[in-house]
Amino acid sequence: MSDSPTDVPAPTAEDITTVMPPLSRREQRRIMKGAGPRDWVPPTVATHPDSGMPLAPGAPGARPYANADQYGGAILATPQGQQQVSGAESARSFEQQLLAVDDRPPLAELDAQNISAWFGDHQVLDRVSLTMPAGVITSLIGPSGCGKSTFLRILNRMHELIPSASLAGEVLLDGEDIYDPSRKLVDARKHIGMVFQKPNPFPAMSIYDNVLAGLKLTGTRADRDRRDYLVETCLTKAGLWKEVRDRLRAPGGGLSGGQQQRLCIARSLAVTPKVLLMDEPCSALDPTSTRVIEETMLELVDDVTIVIVTHNMQQAQRVSTQCAFFLAAQGQPGHIVEHGSTEAMFSSPIDSRTFDYVNGVFG
Questions:
Q1: Does residue 281 contact residue 308 with C-beta atoms inside 8 Å?
Q2: How confident is the prediction along the chain (363 residues), in pLDDT tens digits per residue?
Q3: Would you say 231 and 208 are in contact if contact means Cβ atoms under 8 Å apart?
Q4: How far, in Å, CA of 234 to CA of 230, rounded?
Q5: Are 239 and 295 within 8 A, CB to CB?
Q6: What angle do CA 277, 191, 335 make, to 5 degrees?
Q7: CA-CA distances (angstroms) from residue 85 to 9, 42, 73, 236, 339?
Q8: Around Cβ 167, how many Cβ atoms within 10 Å?
Q9: What element of type H or E holds 171?
Q10: What distance in Å separates the CA atoms of residue 59 and residue 37, rounded to the nearest whole number?
Q11: Using an 8 Å Cβ cutoff, are 304 and 276 in contact?
């Protein structure tokens, strides 16, 4: 191998695809920083033991991938054969191409503006506004009956399914109102997924078919290879693949409660949502299953914006970056008392009612 770089074009997305298997955004960033993804060693990218430069797949003397910033150059396997790409500019291009081949939608911001809601003549929310930043877990806390779950259902147009329900205000997904009459309901549900308090897999449907159920509802077509890939990828993201990979054709209703909840998460991920709403997803689970679900949420936040309703203050502190405190005085509709960073909300809240609630004085 020559020490001087050859003058070749930067690698294309197709070239990179031949080198790297599909990775999450977190895995891509970890690799570019010199760390391997969890439970995975790159099988097709290796470095020379002396120079530290990446070698083409199958090259002798390979060792695990190293920090891209240390490269003098790179050897990539392309459809036209091996090519050498050199310098820090190429390392940056390599990182950009890794991100470019990710087929998931970009992270999205959800913005609720002046949301009021009614059931018949009874008002349950009053002018609630909250921005849920992209790539962040936002927790909604507050005592029962203050409108948290109603607010969550409004965020993906489930509130309107109740005959007596009505609402005012806007819900913007990356600046576009999901309640715009020109937008289809199925599109809102595809982009904004929902995981409920009680696990609700289709009990007689296999684990495999449960994961893919959303594709049928959204009219998404996929060949067998694509379906197999989605099932494995989504179950892996939901932290369930290793537990069920040998019984994918078994009924989803035969899983434990915690496994069923993770199956529901995998089902939501199969349609590549931009936002995932979770309504007390751990309230019916034991502590061990709760821990697994929380770990899953922290892994998923690199791929999807998450909004979670929880009555568990410790859980809100463990998983969320942003927090909103809902409260409804007796006979009055719910509203947001205070919102901000979770750390500030629990350590130095502005409103005394927030301090009392997070410290267990009431609620």
A1: yes
A2: 444 444 444 444 444 333 434 445 555 444 444 444 343 333 334 444 555 544 444 444 433 333 333 333 444 333 444 444 444 444 444 444 444 444 555 788 999 999 999 999 999 999 999 999 999 999 999 999 999 999 999 999 988 888 899 999 999 999 999 999 888 888 888 899 999 888 889 888 999 999 998 888 777 788 889 899 999 999 998 989 999 999 999 999 999 999 999 999 999 998 888 999 999 999 888 898 899 899 999 988 988 999 999 999 999 999 999 999 999 988 899 999 999 999 999 999 999 999 999 998 886
A3: yes
A4: 6
A5: yes
A6: 40
A7: 8, 19, 5, 33, 48
A8: 20
A9: strand 165-173
A10: 22
A11: yes
Q: Where in the chain is the domain with CATH 3.40.50.300?
A: 110-358
List, in order, residues 6 or more apart from 213 with CB less than 8 Å away: 202, 205, 267, 270
**Amino acid type, 43:** P
Q: Per DSSP, what are the bridge partners of residue 117?
A: 125, 167
How far is Cα 235 from Cα 227, in angstroms, rounded to an integer? Answer: 12
Instruction: Please provide residue 143's backbone torsions phi and psi, each rounded to the nearest 5 degrees.
Output: -65, 165
Residues 60 and 4: their CA atoms lie apart, in Å, by 21
Q: In the numeric block, which tokens belong to residue 64?
A: 């695990």
Residue type, 267: R
Other residues' Cβ atoms within 10 Å of the Cβ of residue 231: 22
Task: Give yes or no for a contact between 175 and 260, defined as CB atoms under 8 angstroms apart.
Answer: no
**Cα gap 108→105, rounded to integer Å:** 8
CATH of domain 110-358: 3.40.50.300
Provide the token pair at 226. Answer: 């694509």
Residues 70 and 92: their CA atoms lie apart, in Å, by 11
DSSP 8-state assignment for residue 254: G
Structure tokens at 346: 């629990």
Structure tokens at 94: 């390599």
139: left (phi over 0), alpha (psi -120 to 50) or beta: beta
